[in-house]
Amino acid sequence: MSKYHWIADDTALTQLTSQQQAGERLFIDTEFMRERTFWPRLALLQVNDGRGCHLIDPTTTSPQPMHDLLALRPLVMHACSEDLEALRIGCNVKPAEVIDTQIGAALCGHDMQTSYQKLVETLLGVSLPKTATRTDWLQRPLSAEQLEYAAHDVEYLPGIYQILYDRLEAQGRLEWWREECGRLVADCQRSIDQEDLWRQVKGAASLDGEGRRRLRKLAIWRDASARQRDIPRSFILKDAEMLALASRGASHRGQLAETGMHPSALRRFADALLEVLAQAEQGEVPEPLPGMPEPHIRERIKRLRTYFNKLAEAHQLAPEVLARRRWIEALARDPERLPEPFEGWRASLIGSSLGDLM
Description:
six-stranded mixed sheet, Nucleotidyltransferase, domain 5, alpha/beta
């Protein structure tokens, strides 16, 4: 059974912070809920400082002490992109350095999506229970079983980190790890331009110019409405409803209803939607999304994929670690513009061979 300290007040949290050395690594995880909210709600912060596991209750502690604990120290986490968002929203933490063990495992030859539980079993020979995977982490009190489950999520992180560090150091890949983790943090802190939100709507590539112009305005409105109400975007309008509205347009309530919009959405948002659609008749038409590649582009993608698969195998990496599908497609469409990830550690593996494949 894991031993842990439950921290539920600012005094205890401040005391924990005072015990940490400057620059000392912390091994952390979070539990958060966002099924019915736009913003993730931080529900539990798990910290292993090398001397013990601490479970911090964000519902009874203040954001500032959590910020003071985490902000200036390297954080070791696993598959942490969503955790970083929860920390940013919950306690305004934008870590100076993050070390992600899922990335480290991928650079050691594991699958790119290897879970923490799988790594614990593979590297440490420990099988973790999965009994609390569907917990409502905002409920109080949490049971002993739930707290035990949460503590496990950081109990074994130091051991995993050290094994991965030693292996990557022996392979000369520590700089790869730092680069990939830096890219992850930068991606998590990068916000999407409002004008590009429409690109994320499923089916957007099927629209003509007028439809794309409407969808751009609708996507901006939906995002702002969801943020204001702190509910998921789909609670405002689902993607299929957005696509139907963008495709057909509407100038009165009857036409809105004909798109198949849910009656409750129609009651709440009809006036606002009609105004948005009217405004959408003005302005530039967005460029279309990339469609099906032309035959010569498809052949180029095939050659590139074969090349990267062989290169990954030679370096004992999963193919998607070396070259993700979207990078390969972007390169095939525009050989003159090298995707940014290919300019880092991957460049030393790729060399000058790409030009022969174009």
